[in-house]
Amino acid sequence: VQLQASGGGLVQAGGSLRLSCAASGRTFTAYVMGWFRLAPGKEREFVAAINWNPGSTSGGSTYYTDSVKGRFTISMDNAKNTVYLQMNSLKLEDTAVYYCAADRTYYRGGSWFPNFWGQGTLVTVSS
To answer: How far apart are CA 69 and CA 63, in angstroms?
Structure first.
């Protein structure tokens, strides 16, 4: 299984970025995909997750950490096995390396220790 993340970059505070993560693998079906981030001097933090919904083309239930609610939106394109993180109203404290993650079990909230990780993509928010 490979998770390929992209979309990071430098943006001014208040701006927007969209991260993408494509999952590939011969028999891989992701039941949940999501994002974590790692900021300098901090522990890795869960950002958002979305469960796969076989009855929908765009994913099922979503989960967010409190600090990004109302600003970030996670979505999924089932056909492309790709998850997106639309980040609006970015703040300086959103600066971090963002990691895509996936698993073969549904996420129900709480702690999540993904089995599959992508490489990080750096998001830098400047003042």
So the answer is: 9
User: What letter would DSSP give residue 14?
Assistant: T
Q: Where are the beta strands (DSSP E) in 28-90?
A: 32-38, 45-51, 62-64, 72-77, 82-87
The string of pLDDT tens digits covering residues 37-60 is 999 999 999 999 999 877 777 778
**What is the rounded (10 degree) CA torsion for 9, 13, 68, 42?**
70
The two beta strands, 32-38 and 2-6, are: unpaired
Identity of residue 90: L
Name 15's Cβ contacts closer than 8 Å, sequence gap at least 6: 90, 125
C-alpha 69: how far from its chain's center?
13
- Grade residue 28 by pLDDT with cuts at 50, 70 and 90: low
Strands (E), the chain: 2-6, 9-12, 17-24, 32-38, 45-51, 62-64, 72-77, 82-87, 96-103, 116-126
